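User: Structure please.
Assistant: Input sequence and predicted structure:
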Amino acid sequence: MTQDHPNQPTAGPDAARTGVWLIGARGSVATTAIAGCAALASGMQPPTGMVTETAAFAGCGLPPLTRLVFGGHDTASCPLPKRAEQLVAGGVLPHGLPAAVHAELAAADAYIRPGGPLPGGPPLLLRAEDEGRPTAPLGAASDGPRGEEELIDSFAADLTAFTRDNALARTVVVNVASTEGAPGDGDTLPPSSLYAAAALRAGCPYVNFTPSTGLHHPVLDDAVRSSRLPHAGRDGKTGQTLLRSVLAPMFAQRALPVRAWSGTNLLGGGDGAALAEPGAAAAKNAGKERVLADNLGRLPEGQLHIDDVPALGDWKTAWDHVAFDGFLGSRMILQTVWQGCDSALAAPLVLDLARIVARAHEAGTAGAVEGLGFYFKDPDTGPADLPGQWRELMDLAGRLRAAA
């Protein structure tokens, strides 16, 4: 990139930069977002898929791509440059990009800290000093892995140090980790909620790009209200559900009753493996079904399946079969096929959301940011149809522009 290196501290009041702290920072979505931001900031690639780089957001005061600084938490150890090379081999990133943005990837990787607890297993924490040694359950002796409060404090300390060491105006925390199942009864916080609590404790705005619980845990309700921090979520809308949020209103508005709506997803990579777990798949499907129920007024017959096909890597295929009634009871069918790379679909949305929520924080917004349903399957506020969500997003852009 240029002399304005996004992960290199600079001095002076005019050099304020914005941090983007990614939970799951070595995953496919995070790696694509970091590499993509570097490529866009240097002019190597156009900002395809980024709404914030269109005229609709001109003059809104969003942090420039050249001023974003990346770090994060992850339980994985594969360095970002190597992860980017793997994504090239999988057809996600263009050839030559990891080498061209190697410095930016390495700089971001230097700010990735060990995370935990590990999803899908007992509540564990892997610390740097624990590598190579067995870990113990939370609540063990104080010289071992730590309890919930200690975990939250540790994660918050990482965020505070990152913001301080890079002289950042603010840091936005974005959860792009693997989907976890719905939490059980009780006050125990799932991993996504531990990270969300740490964001609140560190005074950081928060975005949940996954269907995981995050801030939506009753234990965190008081902390969310008292923090007065902007937040957004949940579950990024990148493919099949994006199409459903366009088609379902069409049927409702044209008075065409939908008798059944079935769907199948074939995907590999980390998402495919994570969603092979029934609890995680149920959490994912809930958002997809909610889009239909909210737009049609009811959930039609039909099932939604998610199948793990490791050979597909980061690519996915989604089929939908819609059975509906026409005039005089004629039976009709609509079938759709969506094929795409989930990481490439998600990464520009992650960058959009980080920039918008950072600007909302600067403008003094508290609580759920109104107008961001356009990006989510299960939005905190607003309508369920994509045209309505677009109008609200444009209203948000207008408010940010007025406050700039």
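The longest strand covers residues 315-325.
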